[in-house]
Amino acid sequence: MTLYTLLVDFTLASILILISMFMRSKIKLLQKNFIPASLMAGFLGLALGPGFLNILPFSVDIGSYAGVIIIFVFASVGINGFSFTPGNMKKDLKRMGAYASYKILIIGVLIFIPITFSILVISKWVPEINYGFGLILATGFYGGHGTAAAVGSTFENLGFAAATDLGMTSATIGILAGIFGGLIFIKMATKKGYTQYVKDFSEISEDMRTGLVKPDNRVSIGTETISPIALDPLAFHVALLLIPSGLGYLLNTYIADTWGLDFPTFTIAFIVALLMYAFMGKGKKGVYKYVDENVVNRLGSSATDYLVFFGVASIKLPVVLEYALPLGLLMLSGVIIVILMLWAVGPLMNYESWFERSIFVYGYATGVFAIGLTLLRVVDPNNKSKTLTDTAIVGPLNTPIELFAWSAGPAMLLGGQHWSFIGIYAAISIVCVVISIKLKWWYWKIPLGDRPDASALDRDG
């Protein structure tokens, strides 16, 4: 990749995003279904790019952009700081604890239930399917294309030659289920009154429907905190976000090379941004008074639009029809699991802004982080539910659980230790439920329509 291929890729993305914005402003069907312009542009990129018609000259690197842009997005969240609400620290810890338990539970059930189903049911109908086949679901749905490729390579070295193609197919189906299923569920939730920040379409203003704000309703996206004579204010804020983004990557690379630990780079960047926030200080003598939070939010939001575009436009579709019967059964089990986790378990383990947090995890658990972020953006465009902040903080708790599955899983499943592997993740799932009940992170008695939003608890104190 050269700088010019990067320029061309982002130019094409920008053209499609602007075309999609125009379509969104004119087509009522798109408005009615809350379709973001970036998501629609992603589908146009998928159709016109190398994955299908191959009309637009995208480079082979477009699949890698989303993973980098995510780092920038989380740096924008961290640089605005994180602090427990005065007088509400207990509520904040409770919210994050319940959310962490929910995220860990979903990876547990996505591993042990499909593998068990594959061994006891699918392998009886299709005898050539081995005991590692069930892990294909989690690698694609939860891990995405990157994890599917990595685990598929490990499987291939152990004799499961079709694992990579099956994993990529799983990731593709997961993403499609995440996008289309997520939008359907969001529409259902708005009708039932479960969404906190986006209500039923009939109640939404014309500005929000079309996406075009009338002159009388426009507000400033920021103020000049730095004199342009010294440094452009926008350049100042971009620098504040690029520093933790780059340092997060370098630090994570050092950790991986030195200790062999593999953390999500966006989490490291978020931590670096938080440290910068603490170092700058928010008092009268601190540097942070020159940071405009609105500008930071808009930069992060802008990056999110491109993240969504490249995440969707780089989907690979060629191998969807391979292993049609067993893969179809496996995918069906996965879809059922994530739907139940959204509608049945989500409200049990999330109190405030339960749907916003649950729909993000639904999207995250059906392919890639970008899909979860896309769905969250539809229902919570300004992160009032604190989902992104909490994800960055509790994210590392999932890392060892995922690493063990992706590294040890193939060998255990193909080496006769399949029930031991299943038992480990069944136990993790049970522990999550028990802890939630014992610590009263289990909200089954509270009606869904009576749940508050996270920002309301801050205001109420």
Automatic annotation (TrEMBL):
<feature type="transmembrane region" description="Helical">
    <location>
        <begin position="261"/>
        <end position="279"/>
    </location>
</feature>
<protein>
    <submittedName>
        <fullName>Sodium/glutamate symporter</fullName>
    </submittedName>
</protein>
<dbReference type="Pfam" id="PF03616">
    <property type="entry name" value="Glt_symporter"/>
</dbReference>
<feature type="transmembrane region" description="Helical">
    <location>
        <begin position="166"/>
        <end position="186"/>
    </location>
</feature>
<keyword id="KW-0812">Transmembrane</keyword>
<feature type="transmembrane region" description="Helical">
    <location>
        <begin position="104"/>
        <end position="126"/>
    </location>
</feature>
<dbReference type="GO" id="GO:0015501">
    <property type="term" value="F:glutamate:sodium symporter activity"/>
</dbReference>
<feature type="transmembrane region" description="Helical">
    <location>
        <begin position="62"/>
        <end position="83"/>
    </location>
</feature>
<feature type="transmembrane region" description="Helical">
    <location>
        <begin position="419"/>
        <end position="437"/>
    </location>
</feature>
<feature type="transmembrane region" description="Helical">
    <location>
        <begin position="35"/>
        <end position="56"/>
    </location>
</feature>
<feature type="transmembrane region" description="Helical">
    <location>
        <begin position="234"/>
        <end position="255"/>
    </location>
</feature>
<dbReference type="GO" id="GO:0015813">
    <property type="term" value="P:L-glutamate transmembrane transport"/>
</dbReference>
<keyword id="KW-0472">Membrane</keyword>
<keyword id="KW-1133">Transmembrane helix</keyword>
<feature type="transmembrane region" description="Helical">
    <location>
        <begin position="323"/>
        <end position="346"/>
    </location>
</feature>
<feature type="transmembrane region" description="Helical">
    <location>
        <begin position="6"/>
        <end position="23"/>
    </location>
</feature>
<dbReference type="GO" id="GO:0016020">
    <property type="term" value="C:membrane"/>
</dbReference>
<dbReference type="InterPro" id="IPR004445">
    <property type="entry name" value="GltS"/>
</dbReference>
<feature type="transmembrane region" description="Helical">
    <location>
        <begin position="358"/>
        <end position="379"/>
    </location>
</feature>
